From TrEMBL, chains A, B, C, D:
The protein's enzyme class: transferase
Family: Belongs to the class-III pyridoxal-phosphate-dependent aminotransferase family.
Protein name: Diaminobutyrate--2-oxoglutarate transaminase
Organism, as annotated: Brachybacterium fresconis
InterPro entries assigned: Aminotrans_3, Aminotrans_3_PPA_site, Dat, PyrdxlP-dep_Trfase, PyrdxlP-dep_Trfase_major, PyrdxlP-dep_Trfase_small
Molecular functions (GO terms): diaminobutyrate-2-oxoglutarate transaminase activity
Cofactor: pyridoxal 5'-phosphate
This protein's pathway: Amine and polyamine biosynthesis; ectoine biosynthesis; L-ectoine from L-aspartate 4-semialdehyde: step 1/3
Length: 419, 419, 419, 419
C-alpha cells in the first residue's frame, strides 16, 4: 500500500481515506479489495450510491456495449437515444404506476445541484424567498444548499452568512412534535416577524443527519401546512430513494404528493454521476429554457446504467428482498442494543438503511476503526458522528450480509472493551 | 426522429435540444450522428468538454479494460489505485514541469462546485467575505458561484439576493482599462466604502461570456493587486484549460502564479464528469478533512480517461497541432470579417477557442440554425448570444475542420442574406 | 379647523392625524385643546412620552430659565454643565439605589437609534451576528431595529431582506411557553442549523405589540439562557420604562440584571427628544470613541427637563400614586370585560399601561373614533390594532382619569351598538 | 472644571468631549463659554446644526412664548397649529419660490432616520433593492444609512454585512471622472452583473467626508443617468443645506430636480432636533399612512424655532452676508495655503462651509488641539480626520470671524512648528 502520492499531492481536505487507510484496487457487489488483496465487506456503498453493488454485471455489459457502439457519453441537454431510453423507462417504471406526471429535470450531477435547482424553482414559482429546512438536514455544500444543511461542521465553512432559510426542528428533534403547529400559528400572525415560505425542504429519512425517520403523519402535517400557506413541498430523496428503504421512493405508500423530488446518488446505478429533479408540470412551467444550466447534464453512461437499474423495479422480488434484508439488519441491531442495556442506544431506519445511535461520536469512530481492521466498511453519521449507519448494496449476498453483521458485532464489542 | 418522450416528460428547462432539434445516436471524434443517420461536424464539443473527441479510441479501450477488471468506479475520496494513477500522472505531466506544488482537491464533479470550493477556501484563508468577480464572467449556477456569474439571464433565477461579490469590469469591457487602478486606490482609501477582498476570481479567457481574452499584462495587474491587498488569485480555467488554447493552462507562459486553479470539463477526457481545484499548499492547509464534502468526488471512469488525456501532453506535437488548427480557425474567421466589412464584427480567441462577435444575438442565432441545417454544430455565447464560438475537439481531423469552416461560412452568408 | 396646508404639503405617510382629525393648539397635563377650543382628555400621552403631562409646570420653569440663561441647547457629546447635572442625577436617583454601575450612552434621540446602538454593541462584544428578537416586538423603523420589529405592517416597507435576527415567540404568543427550552436544546445541538446569538432583545412589556406582559419567571429564563450561551440581555424599556409601570424600570423588583437597557420617550420629560442606553461597564468597554456617532446626542432641553423628571422618583409618593391609578384603570377595564362576556376580551398591563384586547381591529378602531368624538384620545395597538391601550400621563388628575374612563366606557358601548 | 461624573458614568463611546476637554456652561451666537468663564469662538456650530448661532435671540423669545402658552411640544404626527405654521411657512419661503411641489415628511429627528426613510421610499417606488452611494459619503449610523456611509471607521461597527448599496467614487475621488459613464455602460450590459438601482443617494457637498464639492455638471450627469435608468435622485442636504453654502439648498441655482431631499441639523434652528424629507408627490404617493413611524416626529420646539429660521431667507441680505463671509473664510485659507507651499494643501468649500485639506490626520488633530487651547473650536473631518472644516454659525459677527481666523492661522503655525 503506497499512499505517498496522495499525501504529497492531494488536498488536506481528503476525508474518507483517513477512515479507510488503504488503497482499493477493485470491487464487486458488496466487496472491495485493496491492492494488497485484502477483501472488505461494504456496508457503506459509496455513501448510498451503489444500491446495485459495485460493478453490477448487467450494467457492466450494458456500459461496455454502449462504449463500443460509440454512444453519446456527454450530451449536455441535447436529445440522445440513450437519454430517451432513460426518460421513457423512468416514466414507465416509476412515474406512470404511481400516477405521477412530474417532469424530469437534469442538472449538474450532484445532489447539491439538484437541491439548488429545486430551491430556485420554488422561489420562482411562489415569488417568495425563504425556504423551510429542518434541523439535522443535509442537502449539499454549495451556498444555496449549504444554507439548508443544518450541520454546523459544514456550515462554518461558508465564509459568508447563510440566509433565506427558516429552520424548524425535524420531527424527531427536540421541539419537533410542536414545531409545525407553532409555525402555522406564527404564519397566521401578522406580528410574528416571519415571512411566508416558498417551500418546505425535507428528507423523509435524514440519512447524513443520523438516520432520522419521519412518520407518515408528520410528513402529511408538513404537506398540509405547505398547501395551507401556499408553499411547495420538496422531498430530498437523494440518499434514501431508489429502493433503499424497500420501496422506490422513501415515502412510497404514504399518500404524499410532493411538488418537487430531488434524486441523485443511486439513480445512475453504477456510481456514474447523475442528478434529476421531478417537478410537477404546473411548477415546472415556471422554468425558462436554460435557466439553470450546467455542463454534465446529459451523462450517457449514467443513463445506460440507470436504465438497467430501473429493471430491478419491474417486479416485486427485488424490493421484497430489500425489505427482508432490512429486517435482518434491524433485528441484529436490536439484539446488539439488547445486549448492551444501560447504554441508551437506539436503532432507527427503514428497509436497508438501518442505524445504531450510540450517542457517542468517539465510540462510533472506534467501532468504525475496529470494523475496518476486521474487514468491514461502515460510515458514522449524525451529530458528532455518533450514529453507525448501515447501507450495504441492496444486492448484497446473504453470506456477506451475515458476515458483515458478525464483524460489526465484534467491532462493537471490541470498542466497548476499549472504553 | 421521435422527441415526444422528451416533450412529454422532460422539464421545460431543457435548452440545447431546442437549438439542435434532433436525436443523436452516436459520435466519434468530431462527428455526431443522429438516429436518422445524419452526420454533424461538432464545433461545440459538449461546451468545451470533449477536447479529445467523442469516444476517443484510446480512452474507450482504457475504460472497457477498467470496467472489465472491476475497477472502482465510485470511491468518494477513499484511495484507489486508479485515483493514484491520475494524481501521480497529473503531477508528473502538468505540475512538476511547471514547478508547481499545488495540491489537488476533488469535489462534486461540476465546475460550479469547483468554484464554490475555491470561494470557501479563499474566504477561510483570508478571513474576508468579498470576492472580486468580473463582468461577463461565468462561474456556475449554484448560489455561491452564481453570485460570481455576471449574466443577468442566469442571475435573475436566484430568487434571493446574490451578495458578497465585488464586481469589476473585465479587461475588455467598458472601463476595464482603468478599473483595477481605481479599485487599488479605493481599497487604499478608508472612506471608499469597500471591503478588502478575499480573492480575485478570473477566467483568463472568458468562454461563455463571449470569448474575451485577457492580456498577460492585465492578468499580472490583477495578480499584483491581489498580492498587494492580501487577496488570493483564483483562475477559473474550466472551459479554457486542458489544452484548449494551445497550452495546458490557458495562462501558461505568462509567468503567472495563481493561488487556486479550478478545472473540470475536459479534465475527465471522455465527457466523464470530474472537477478538481489546484490549491497552493499554504492555502490548502486551511482546509480541514471533509470540510467541503460531496458524493461523486472519486469518479473512477474519469480518472481512467483523464490519465489517457494527460498522455496527449507528454510531448509537444499535440499542442503544436492545436495551435496550428487554432490559427486556421482564426484565419478563416478573419477572412469572414474582411468579407463583411461595415458589420463591425470582431474575431477573438486563442488556440482552438476562436470566436466571431457579430454584435447581434438574433443574427448569431440564425447562423447557428443555418449551420445546424447544413450539418454543423456551433453554440452562440456572450451577452444575448451574439458571439459565435468555435471550440471543436482538439483532435478534429483536418478534413472535418475545413468542412466545418466551409459550412460556417455558408451559414453566415445564408443568415446575412436573410437579414 | 384648517387642515388644507397639511393635505397640500405634508406627506401621505402622516398617520395619527387621521385618527384625531383636528388641529391641536395647546396642552396641559392630561388635556389637549384644539384650535376651536375643544378639550380632549389624553389617554395616549404622545405614545408614552408624556409621563409627566403636557407642559409640566416645573419643567416649563426650568426650561425657560435655561433658555434665558443661554444654556447649551445643542452640544453633540461635548461636556456641558447641563449634561453633567443629568448624568449625575440619573446616577444618583436611578442607578446608585439599584446598585447598578451601567454607563450612560447617548445617541441620536430616537428609540430606534438606541436599539441600533445596543445591537452593534452586543455584536461587537460577542463577535456574533444574530440577535434573538420576539414575536410582537417593536424596536424601531431603521433597518437594524426594523429587522428586530415583528409587525409585518412595518417590515414590508424595508425594501430589502431583514436579516441577522432569530425570531422566537414572546412568552404570551403561541409556542411561547416552550420556545426557550427548545431553543436551548437547539443551540446545544451542532446540527440544529442555528447560530449562537449575540443577544436577546426583549421588551419586558411589549407596548406597541399589544401590551403583552412578560412574567418575572420567563424573563429570568431568558436571562439564564443568555448567560448560558454567552449572549447578552438587552431590555428595551423605551415605552414601558420611566415610571410607567409603577416602578422606574418596568422590570424593577424582579432581580433581573440586563447587560444593556435602552431608554428614550419619557426620559426627556417634556416631550423633548433624547435616547440613552445603559451599558454594563465590561460591555461598554468594547466601544471606541465616536463609534456610533450622531448629531443630536447632547440635547440640552431634554437634559434640563429630564432632571426635573428624575425628581419625581426621589420619594415613593409618585410611584405609589401611579400604581394606585393603574389599579383604577385596570379595575375599570375588568368591569368593562365583565359587562361584555362572550366577547373574549382580555385586560392586560401593569401600572399605568393597561389595555383591553378586543380581538378585533375594526372594533377597536371604532372605539377610538367614538372616543375621539366624545373628547378622549386613545391609541389602538397590537396586531391589526385590536388592542386599546391606555397610557395617560402618570400625572393625570383624578378627575380626568375618571372622566376619561367614563368616556371610554361610553365609546365601547357605542361601538358595540354599532356592530 | 469637573469631568469626573462623565468619566465615571458616561460611556466610553463619548468622543467630541475628548477634543474639547472642558465643560461648557453657556453659549451665544458664535461663542461658547465654559464653566470657568473661558470663551471659545465656535467654528464648528454643533457639526453644522447652529446655522443661526447659539441661543439665537429671536428664537429664544419665540420658544419662551411658546412654552409659556402651553404650546404642543410633542405631537407625533397629529396636526398642531405650530406644525401648520412650519409647514405653511416652509412652503411659502422655500418651496413655492422654487416652483417645487415636494411634500414634507417628518420622521424621527435624526439625519440617519431621514436617509432611512428616503431609502425605503426609493425602494418601494421602484421595486428595486440597490441604492447607489458614493465614496466618502456620510449618511448616518443606523444599519440602512450606515450601509450608504463610506467611512470604514464607522462601517466596521455594524457587526453584520452592509448590503444593498452599489458604491461609486464621488466626483472628486479617484475614478470619479469616469465612474458614471462606466456605470451607465455597465447597466446597459446584461452581463455586467449589476442590478438596476433604486436611487442615487448624493450629498452635493460631502461635509463629513472632507468637504468635497460636486460640480453642477457632475450632479446633472448623476441626475441624467438616474432618469435614464429609472432610478430616483436623493440629495442628502443635511449638513450643507439651510443656508450653509450661501443658498437655501446647497444645490440651488443649478437647475437640478431631485426626487427626494433629506434635511435635518439646521432645520430646527435652535439645535432643537428635527428631520424632514421633501418627496415629489408622485413618489410620495407610494407611502401608506404610518409606514415609517416614530415617536419624535412632531417636535413643537423645533417647529417654533424653525419658523424663525425661515424668516432669515425672506430677503437676500442674509444669504448675501453668508456668501461674503464665506469668501473671507476662503480667502484666508487660500492665504494660509500660499504661506505653506510644498505642503500640498488644498482649500475646498462653498459659502460658509470651507475647508483646508492638510492631507495629514495627525497634523490636523494637532491644529485642532492648538486651536482649542487658544480658544477656537474646530472639527477635523475626512479620511483619517485630515481636513480642517470651518462651519461657523452663519450669523457669526465679523469680529469673531476675524479673530477665529487669526486663531486658526496661529494654530496652524504652532502645529507646523511642532512637526
Amino acid at each position: 500500500m503506497d499512499t505517498t502520492v496522495f499525501e504529497a499531492h492531494e488536498s488536506e481536505i481528503r476525508g474518507y481515506c483517513r477512515n479507510y487507510p488503504t488503497v482499493f484496487a477493485s470491487a464487486s457487489n458488496a466487496r472491495q479489495v485493496d491492492e494488497d488483496g485484502r477483501s472488505f465487506i461494504d456496508f457503506f456503498a459509496g455513501a448510498g450510491v451503489l444500491n446495485f453493488g459495485h460493478n453490477n454485471p448487467r450494467m457492466k455489459e450494458a456500459l461496455i456495449d454502449f462504449i463500443q457502439a460509440d454512444g453519446i457519453t456527454h450530451s449536455l441537454d441535447t436529445y440522445t437515444t440513450t437519454k430517451r431510453d432513460f426518460v421513457s423507462r423512468f416514466h414507465e417504471v416509476v412515474l406512470a404506476p404511481r400516477g405521477m406526471d412530474h417532469r424530469m429535470q437534469f442538472m449538474g450531477p450532484t445532489g447539491s445541484n439538484a437541491v439548488e435547482a429545486a430551491m430556485k424553482l420554488a422561489r420562482k414559482a411562489t415569488g417568495r424567498r425563504q425556504i423551510v429546512a429542518f434541523s439535522h438536514g443535509f442537502h449539499g455544500m454549495t451556498l444555496g444548499s449549504l444554507a439548508a444543511t443544518a450541520n454546523d461542521a459544514f456550515r462554518q465553512w461558508s465564509g459568508v452568512p447563510l440566509e433565506n432559510i427558516h429552520r424548524l426542528p425535524f420531527e424527531t428533534a427536540p421541539g419537533g412534535d410542536t414545531a409545525l403547529a407553532e409555525y402555522r400559528e406564527a404564519l397566521a400572525d401578522p406580528s410574528s416577524g416571519l415571512l411566508a415560505p416558498a417551500a418546505f425542504l425535507i428528507e423523509p429519512i435524514q440519512a447524513e443527519g443520523g438516520v432520522n425517520v419521519a412518520s407518515k403523519e408528520w410528513l402529511h402535517e408538513v404537506q398540509d401546512l405547505a398547501r395551507e400557506v401556499g408553499a411547495l413541498v420538496i422531498f430530498d430523496d437523494i440518499q434514501a430513494g431508489i429502493g433503499r428503504t424497500g420501496s422506490y421512493f422513501s415515502f412510497d405508500g404514504m399518500g404524499l404528493d410532493p411538488d418537487i423530488i430531488t434524486l441523485a446518488k443511486g439513480l445512475g446505478g453504477f456510481g456514474t454521476p447523475i442528478a434529476m429533479n421531478l417537478n410537477k408540470p404546473e411548477i415546472d412551467d415556471h422554468w425558462s429554457p436554460g435557466a439553470h444550466t450546467g455542463t454534465f447534464r446529459g451523462p450517457g453512461l449514467s443513463f445506460v446504467a440507470g436504465v438497467v437499474a430501473l429493471d430491478y423495479f419491474t417486479d416485486d422480488s427485488f424490493l421484497d428482498d430489500v425489505r427482508a434484508k432490512g429486517e435482518r439488519l434491524r433485528e441484529r441491531l436490536v439484539k446488539i442494543v439488547e445486549a448492551n442495556p444501560d447504554r441508551g442506544w437506539e436503532v432507527r431506519g427503514r428497509g436497508m438503511i438501518q442505524a445504531l445511535d450510540t450517542g457517542d461520536g468517539a465510540f462510533a469512530k472506534r467501532v468504525q476503526k475496529e470494523a475496518f481492521d476486521a474487514g468491514l466498511l461502515i460510515g458514522p453519521c449524525g451529530s458528532g458522528g455518533r450514529v453507525i449507519k448501515l447501507i450495504p448494496p441492496l444486492t448484497i449476498p446473504e453470506g456477506d450480509l451475515t458476515e458483515g453483521l458478525d464483524l460489526l458485532e465484534q467491532a462493537i464489542d471490541a470498542a466497548t472493551r476499549a472504553l
